[in-house]
Amino acid sequence: MSVQVSTARTAAVWVLRVALGAYFVYSGLSLFGDGFVGKFDRIGFGQGLRYVTGVLEVAGGLGLLVPLLGGLAALGLAAVMTGAVITELIILGDPEAAVLPALLLALSVATALLCWDDVRVPGRRGQRLGK
Asked: Which residues cross the membrane (predicted)?
């Protein structure tokens, strides 16, 4: 791969990571306000789920900005978005509301795949999970 292509790919991946990270931090923080109380009441698992989801989204969004954590953070966010898609479709019965979490799920999976080579095995200096 040429240096120009490699640099362009790296820049594109970082743009994706920063944009996705900013969205998830914003979204996660918004879950701590009163705007989603009614929605989580309709879900039926209590308001604790709203706080857990908010923490996971903020942590994942910030994790996307850490090179060694980006792939794992994206994978975790994909799991959260899988839950959101299932919730919108099955529990709330609102296919239109499932579109945004489905898009975020796809972007999170793509980010996880693009960043996976940066993930390292804890305790094993220099050894990567992707290799």
From this structure: 12-37, 58-86, 98-116
